[in-house]
Write a structure and sequence with these properties.
SAM-dependent_MTases_sf, 16 helices, Alpha-Beta Plaits, alpha/beta, Rossmann fold, binds S-adenosylmethionine, eight-stranded mixed sheet, 444 residues, single chain, N-utilizing Substance Protein B Homolog, Chain A, three-stranded antiparallel sheet, 11 strands
Length: 444
């Protein structure tokens, strides 16, 4: 009988994903593989929107639920999970109430349907609303307030209300003008793509990416502008070093699904791309195939890999909390805590130190994380420099990058801190941290 209720498959998958994230502590990105793979594309997309919007407004949704129940429902009770997603559909996605109520009650078969129906009904009668911008989870909000100040937290809250725009990275930066014009033809009149950096195009939100011109031809790939910065720093440092270094032996570590690998290949380096995950490495290969570029792909744990030679430059895009991607992954900052940060920071230090021996004298290591936590950024560079007297912090000319330095100027020993409210007037960007070090030329 349940199968006959339209839209139930998407809601069932959304509930399973929320349960995996909020009760079992999994990442939505991982949970999604298990629960949406059997759905048709439109149900899969709907399940993802419900899960993401529920997580984005979780604190405000819980406050509405708690305002209607005599006893506070337990955090991981099924009825709370179902109510959470019901309110996201009603008050954010503006799904018609009958569709929300019928599917929600079906999910609660044999459970407290009357309670759920009562809560939804009384919130609808009271014309309840969610705030325009979601309340930030307290752990992240307090930590960011201390590290980056009130403006960053306020702007992050505004950015948190919506999914980010789609950024493209062009294979050939020289095609920027022509590609922008071609892409503009597909948009409604008056809406234009913008470019904030060489080779970068930002599309208006809500574009179906693989239908855009140039996708099949491999002219571009999707990559947040902040995520384009690390490989661009590597390419700029190599280019500044001189003609011979413009194309070098480059090792891309933690490379899949390959956004940065493609930037390095497009700059004509000889690239070895390593990742521990076979599944993600397959996506890297598909991305290279689509863009008609080539890299030597290695599937290995970098800490155990014996195949390293010596390289002109290494890019380490280390595993991290990914708190800088909070807009596209709203589950991350609902769950992040000091223990996660410390565990990943320890792994990053181990990786950064482990690869130092693989760089040629005069060569570079670029260390990057998509995290807003100092432990995974500034502190990593300090630790590396204090333990490696044979390396010096460096940066290329940063004047053409769309980011403002934190204290008025870029200082190599501090690295590059990318805050989400850079280019705020154009919709902001992911949070990131990038540092570059160079092995002293007379060192072996
Ligand atoms: C932030 S993602 C990389 C994104 C990628 N650089 C890009 O631009 O598309 C981190 C990657 O690190 C990989 N990884 C985690 N631990 C690793 C290890 N010990 N050795 C190699 N790769 C690892 C993960 O499989 C994951 O693909």
């Amino acid at each position: 009988m349940e199968k006959q209720i339209s839209g139930l498959a998407a809601r069932t998958a959304a509930l399973q994903m929320l349960d995996a994230v909020l009760r079992r502590g999994e990442h939505l990105d991982q949970a999604r593989h298990a629960y949406i793979k059997k759905l048709n594309p439109s149900d899969a997309a709907m399940a993802m929107v419900i899960a993401n919007e529920t997580l984005r407004y979780l604190i405000d949704i819980d406050a509405l639920i708690d305002s209607q129940t005599r006893n506070i429902l337990s955090e991981d009770a099924k009825v709370r999970m179902v109510l959470r997603m019901s309110l996201a559909q009603l008050f954010i996605m503006e799904t018609p109430p009958h569709a929300v109520i019928s599917t929600s009650l079906a999910l609660l078969q044999g459970g407290p349907r009357k309670l759920a129906h009562g809560v939804i009904g009384s919130l609808l009668r009271a014309e309840a609303q969610l705030p325009d911008t979601p309340t930030m989870p307290p752990f992240a909000a307090l930590k960011w307030l201390k590290d980056w100040g009130p403006q960053m937290v306020e702007d992050s809250r505004i950015l948190f209300a919506t999914a980010p725009s789609v950024d493209l990275c062009l294979k050939d930066a020289g095609h920027l003008e022509k590609m922008s014009e071609t892409l503009a033809q597909d948009l409604i009149e008056g809406v234009k793509p913008i470019s904030l950096m060489a080779g970068h195009i930002r599309m208006p939100r809500g574009q179906a990416v693989d239908a855009l011109p140039g996708f099949d031809e491999g002219e571009w790939w999707v990559q947040d502008i902040a995520a384009q910065i690390p490989a661009r720093i590597l390419n700029d440092l190599m280019a500044q070093k001189g003609k011979d270094a413009q194309s070098g032996d480059v090792l891309d570590l933690c490379a899949a699904p390959g956004g940065k690998t493609m930037q390095l290949c497009a700059a004509k380096h000889r690239v070895t791309a390593l990742d521990v995950s076979e599944r993600r490495a397959r996506r890297l290969q598909q991305n290279l195939d689509r863009t008609a570029m080539d890299a030597n792909i290695v599937i290995h744990n970098l800490l155990k890999w014996k195949g390293a030679q010596s390289y002109d430059a290494i890019l380490l895009d280390a595993p991290c909390t990914a708190s800088g991607t909070f807009r596209r992954h709203p589950d991350i900052i609902q769950k992040i805590d000091d223990r996660d940060i410390a565990k990943l920071a320890a792994l990053q230090s181990e990786m950064f130190a482990h690869i130092a021996k693989w760089v040629r004298p005069g060569g570079f290591i670029i260390f990057a994380t998509c995290s807003l936590e100092r432990e995974e950024g500034e502190d990593q560079l300090q630790k590396f420099l204090s333990e490696h007297g044979d390396f010096t912090a460096v940066l290329p000319d940063m004047s053409a990058y769309p980011i403002a330095p934190i204290n008025g100027e870029f200082i190599p020993e501090k690295g590059v801190r990318v805050l989400p409210n850079n280019a705020m007037e154009h919709g902001g960007m992911d949070g990131f941290y990038v540092a570059a070090v160079q092995k002293n030329a007379n060192m072996k």
